[in-house]
Amino acid sequence: MHRVRILVAVIDDPEEIRLAEQLLGELDWPAREWDAPEARRRALDAGRKGMVVEAHLRGNRHGVVRAVVRTVEDRAKDRRIGMWVLDAVYVGHDHSAETTTTYEVKRRNPTWYRPHTYVEHRVLTRPGAPRASEVGRQLTDSEGMLLDAPHDAGDLAVHVVGRPSQGFNRHQFLWDLGRYYAPLALVGGASSLLPGYWPWATLVVAVLSLSWTLGEDVQPVGRPTHERLAVGAFVVLVLWVSPFSVFRYSEQEPVAEAVWLIPLVLTGFAVAGVWWAVRGTWLSRTAHWTVPALVPVLALVLPWLGQLQHAVYLRDGFGIPADSVAIPVSSLYAATLLPLATAGALFLLLAGSVGVFRYMHWLGGRDQPAVVAQGLLFVGVLALLITPVWLGVRNAGAAAADAKGAARDGRAPAAYFGAEGRLMCVRPLKAKIPVFNGPLPSGDRPLLTFGASGDRLWFWDPRSKEALSVRAEDVSAERC
Q1: Residue 281 dihedral angles phi and psi, to the nearest 5°
Q2: 11: Cα within 13 Å, side-chain hemisphere
C-alpha cells in the first residue's frame, strides 16, 4: 500500500465541496481543508478552495503518484465536478529502511511433571539488531518496560523470534533467489545428465557447502546449530532432487520435458496476476458470499452443458436421439470438466494479465494500456462463456468420429461419459416387423447400439451409416 498526499482545488461552493468530498469518500481517501499560510494560498485562483487528500493505492511504487492524479481527474471529469489537482507528492514511509527485532520473554512455570516449563509472558519489539542480553537487563528495570505487568521479576528467559525484520526488500529477495535457489535447481537438473555416481557426488557437495548458508537464511536467529543444518540440508535436497527427478526418470528427452515447465511458469504468473487483479476490490470483499452463490448456478449449468455434449455425440454423430440413451447425472458433470477447466485456465491467464496491468497502474485511465487491459478482461469473460460450449461440442464430435471408425473396423468404441456403445447382431423374432428407417440388416452384420430406452432399441449401421429403430419385443440382440 502506497501513500500519496495531493492538493486539490475545488470551486468554493457548498454543493461542489459536498460532491467532491462524496467522490473522495467513495475512494476511501480522507480529505481535509488546506491549512496553509496566506502566501501559499495565493496559488489558488479566486473562488476556489484548497483541500488536502490522503490517497492510498496498491501496486508498483513507480507510477503510483501519476495513477492517483489520473484517478482523481478522471472521476471529477466523469461527474462534472469542479475539482482539479494542483500538487501531488509521495509521502509513504519506507519501513524497509528500519531494522527491528522481536523478542519473546518467557517466565518459568514449573509443574510436578515438567519442572523446567516456561510459559509466554511478554513480546517486545525493539529497533536494531538482536540484543537479547540487553533486553534481559531491561526486564529488571521497571523504567525499561513500556507497560507494567505482574511477575516481571522472576526466572525469565529472552528469545529472539525470527530474523531481524527489515520489511520486504525486493532487490534483496531477487538477489537471494538468483544467488542460491535458481542455480541450485539448475545444477540439480543438469547433474541428471552426468554418468555413474557423479550426480550423487554433486548432491553431497551441494549439501555440505550450502546447508549452513540456506539454514541461516530460513531459520530464526538463535536456533540450535543442528536445527539450522538440518533445515538447510532439507532445502538443498528439495531444490536439487525435484528437477533431478524430472529429468532423470522421465521417458522423454530433457529438452522435451523442460517444455512442461512453461505451464508451471504461466500458472505462477496467472496466480500472482489474479491476486493483483482482485486484491482490494469488491470481489475480494464479497468473496464470502459470491463464491457460495456460484455453486447452485454451476449445479444447473453444468448438466445442461453435459446434455449438449451428449446430444452432439449421439444425434449429430449417429442420428440417435439423445433422450433414448440413459446417461447418469455424474457422467453429465464429468463431461464438462475438461472444457470448463480449459476455459477457466484461459480466463485466469487473461485475468492475470489484467492484474499485471493493474499492478503497474495501467488500468483505470483513458490511456492506451488501460484500453488494452479492459479489452483483455472483456476477451477473458467471453472466453469463460464461449470456450466450454465450443470445446465441449468439438470434443463430442471428435469422439463420435472415433467411435464410428471403430465400429466400421469391427471394434467396440470407447465409452463417452456414460454412453457405452456395443456391437450387436440383431435378429427379428417375426417374419415382418416394423423398422424405422429400415430395412433391418441381416443378423450376421454387427450394429452399434447404446442400450435400450423404454420399449425401443436404436442402432447405427456402420455400412449404411444410418440409424434405425425397432421395438424391443420384436428383435433379439446378441453380441457378435
Answers
A1: -110, 175
A2: 10
pTM for the model? 0.62
Q: Residue 26: which H helix or E strand, with range?
A: helix 14-26
Looking up residue 66, the CATH number of its domain turns out to be 3.30.70.260
The answer to the question of residue 280 being in a domain is no
Task: Clarify whether residues 327 and 366 are in a common domain.
Answer: yes
Q: Read off the pLDDT band of 61 (50, 70, 90).
A: confident
Give yes or no for residue 117 having a pLDDT over 90: no
95 with 165: CB under 8 angstroms? no
Which residue range is the domain that position 132 belongs to?
99-165
Q: Side chain identity at 244, as an amino acid letter?
A: F
Residues 161 and 174 in one domain: no
Cell of residue 230, nine digits: 538440518
* Domain co-membership, 400 together with 452: no
- DSSP for 86-119 reads EEEEE----GGG--EEEEEEEEE---SS-TT-EE
162-182 per-position pLDDT tens digit: 555 555 455 555 566 566 666
84 with 106, same domain: the answer is no
Angle between helices 64-78 and 14-26 (to 10 degrees): 130
Residue 158, all three cell numbers: 529472552
Helices 261-278 and 337-359: crossing angle in degrees, nearest 10, is: 60
Whether residues 310 and 333 share a domain: the answer is yes
CA 451 to chain centre: 43
Burial 5-39 (b: 16+ CB within 10 A, else e): bbbbbbbeeeebbebbbebbeebebebeebeeeee
89 and 113 in a single domain? The answer is no
Q: Are 45 and 117 in contact (CB under 8 A)?
A: no
Report the alpha-carbon angle 323-327-332, nearest 5: 110
- Total structural domains in the chain? 5
Peptide bond into 439 cis (omega under 30): yes
Nearest to 150 by CA among 142, 160, 138, 162: 142
